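User: Sequence in, structure out. Go.
Assistant: Echoing your sequence, followed by the structure tokens.
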Amino acid sequence: MRKLKVTELNRLTPEAFKESRKIPLVIVLDHIRSLNNVGSVFRTSDAFKVEAVYLCGITACPPHVEIHKTALGAEDTVTWKYFDDTLAAVDKLRQQGYTVCAIEQVEGSIMLDKLLLDKNKKYAVIMGNEVKGVQQAVVDKCDMCIEIPQYGTKHSLNVSVTTGIVIWDFFKQLSD
């Protein structure tokens, strides 16, 4: 096997990416502290054609050198918006017809491997703070909570890893 060269990957130009059809998914970052995590979410969102990333509360916004280190330019291709308050972002998404889902361990959560999405709906997933998770007030406004099954001794994953797993699952179910 021979590794492919970057020129052989047939990647979209930033202009073509902006014009391309996206999956009906918005990622909402609820008070994410790490700029590396923010950058990673942008990069994964670019890879799987996520519609937008909403940055809320203390979550840093581009342009920022620390975000760029992991985003590698995806912060310039993926549409993003900033909200002072995550609840305002949730309200806006609900008004626009999105099904809003927190990625959180709660009573009655739906395990990601059991989740069935409707291709005719739009979704938003809320990713929580690295220590505190998704705010309870935000969880209270969600249509559902989704949990990633875990089988080891730890009961949490890094937020950028979690986002990648969730985006991949949504992409598989929502892409043409």
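User: And one key feature?
Assistant: The first helix runs from residue 14 to 19.
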